Amino acid sequence: MAGGVGSRFWPYSRNNRPKQFLDFCGTGRSLLQMTFDRFARIIPKENILVVTNKAYKALVMEQLPEMNEKQVLLEPARRNTAPCIAYALAHIRKRDTKANMVVAPADHLITKEDEFLAAVEKGLEHVAKNDVLLTLGIKPNRPEVSYGYIQAGAENEKGFRKVKTFTEKPNLELAKEFMESGEFFWNAGVFLWNAETIHKAFWEFLPDLAAKFDEASPMMGTDEEESYINELFPTCQNISIDYGIMEHARKVDVLCGDFGWSDLGTWGSLYDLSDKDDNGNVILKCRALTYDCHDNIVVLPEGKLAVLYGLKDYIVVEADNALLICKKQEEQRIRQFVNDVSMMPDNSDFI
Amino acid sequence: MAGGVGSRFWPYSRNNRPKQFLDFCGTGRSLLQMTFDRFARIIPKENILVVTNKAYKALVMEQLPEMNEKQVLLEPARRNTAPCIAYALAHIRKRDTKANMVVAPADHLITKEDEFLAAVEKGLEHVAKNDVLLTLGIKPNRPEVSYGYIQAGAENEKGFRKVKTFTEKPNLELAKEFMESGEFFWNAGVFLWNAETIHKAFWEFLPDLAAKFDEASPMMGTDEEESYINELFPTCQNISIDYGIMEHARKVDVLCGDFGWSDLGTWGSLYDLSDKDDNGNVILKCRALTYDCHDNIVVLPEGKLAVLYGLKDYIVVEADNALLICKKQEEQRIRQFVNDVSMMPDNSDFI
């Protein structure tokens, strides 16, 4: 799934260059490319589909030249994850109605790839044999309030747990209780299931979507696909797979682990993940001289120099023609800032 | 006088683009150009000399195409204001040993030009008739600690005062006393005198310099000037006209007024001079959205956008490849920062 816009990384991410296409870690590979590389280690490349917004087709093809154009599914409108997954499912079912699938966001970071891939392989085996929807759960390492949590039962002998509930983002107090209890895990948005199981679940919980994409299925991979999807997609309900199916399904398991996972949701989470200097500053891409500066994250274009005096707990990010300076603990406001920028006259260069 | 480097406006000013060549006010004219325009209202253009460092010859000619190359005197080394003025004096004396002169820095701002020019004309008349060195004094509007002060006697019937002492930069307490006393004025570094008077003063207080430039005088304006000055100038004593002559001369007058003068010495003084928004922020050249921001000065290249949250009393300046963020009250440290930058490896792009 590579269709997000993501304004939380503004000004680094822009409408025409969202987070999944950025080389966050400076490794020379974007998050999308890293996600592709990761799965390509255990899944044949021709079995990988990328679902993205129409607007990003060229970007995807440029970043993943090893993919056939037909593997890139284009959404003509933003409709959240349930229609996105239904679309991919229609494609997959045309090739193999009994395929085992893994669904993952293309804009997350996984630093422990081996553990992650071992879990995916184990999970695929599990959903092949059992009529169950499976999700990956991340063992929390901090009382994070910006994630959804999964409450899970005891681990069975094979390492799987039954999902009790999917929870909304908690407040800090609750997040601390979640952590201490040991039965709550972060919902990483990574799902595994057999095509038959999820197809049944669509019919049970989102029958309108199921009907639409069953009708669309014969067109998949043909010349008619694009125009058909262009008609159909915008009529789909805007709903997440979590809210539309996972929270209601009766047989949902979770496989928990620590995969060095981050959704890189905000500058603050990038700060948490990154190496720090002796004063707790994270300096990415650029060079910096800091004086009396603590616990900041500074990201300027390569080749630039920052000289900073007397900043504590700030985000300082520059990209192209925009500079953002914001207190780290107020970063949830960045969405509002970007919205305000979008209201400015002559703003098109900035968003 | 247009030879300064001035690191206090880093990163906006650089070694190859010092303050006098910058369009600080966004009017389309640099401080040097504004200084030239100002004096050209009362002094024939061909009687204006610019003394600058060799390295800035091309910049001066580019910014002042109306000047003849021979009006631009090139210093092959930095030797403070006394040698600079002695060099200009040698030029002027070759044309007219009885000329009346006004000497002014090319990197100051004067917002009340009419008052200023009226004072200059009155001063030129005064030094034409009297064997006296004259300086302009600025009525202080705040207890500034970064300026030198002139202690002056009572105003005579013509509006002139005798200088009692030139003082060093005072501490805040003393600066407040200076202001209250009513007999202290800022030393703006603008001097008026007759060529004979200052020539005598050079022989009295800096005889070595006087002898050197008397010897050089016949070469002025000839093909030999450049090579002669290249030899002579580096051997000159490094000394200011204030310290070398003004503080010792017996007959020094001061003409005081309020000329909307600023030496634009620092980002802080530019802040003080500039229009502010409702929250006391000064935004120059760029566009900005500010949230919970007070009393900052923000200068980014034209066309850029700054989004700022939770900054109070900061300097935020970007130019080319460098970004400076510094508490306003710590701006005197910028010199140190620039020095530190000059110690970095591969730093040549930054200074």
Tell me about this structure.
Two copies of one chain form a homodimer. Chain A has eleven helices and 16 strands. Helices cover 32% and strands 23% of the residues of chain A. Chain A is α/β, with parallel strands linked by helices and 351 residues long. The first copy, chain A, has helices spanning 31-40, 57-63, 81-95, 113-129, 172-181, 195-205, 207-216, 225-232, 241-246, 267-273, 334-343; strands at 50-53, 72-75, 100-103, 109-110, 133-138, 149-152, 160-167, 184-194, 252-257, 261-262, 282-284, 287-291, 297-299, 305-309, 314-319, 322-327. In chain A, helix 6 (195-205) packs across helix 7 (207-216). In chain A, the strands form five sheets. A five-stranded mixed barrel of chain A has the order 5-8-6-7-9. In chain A, a hairpin with a 7-residue loop joins strand 6 and strand 7. Chain A binds chain B through residues 11, 287, 289, 291, 300, 303-311, 314, 316, 318, 321-327, 330, 333, 337, 340-341, 344, 349-350, and chain B through 11, 287, 289, 291, 300, 303-311, 314, 316, 318, 321-327, 330, 333, 337, 340-341, 344, 349-350.
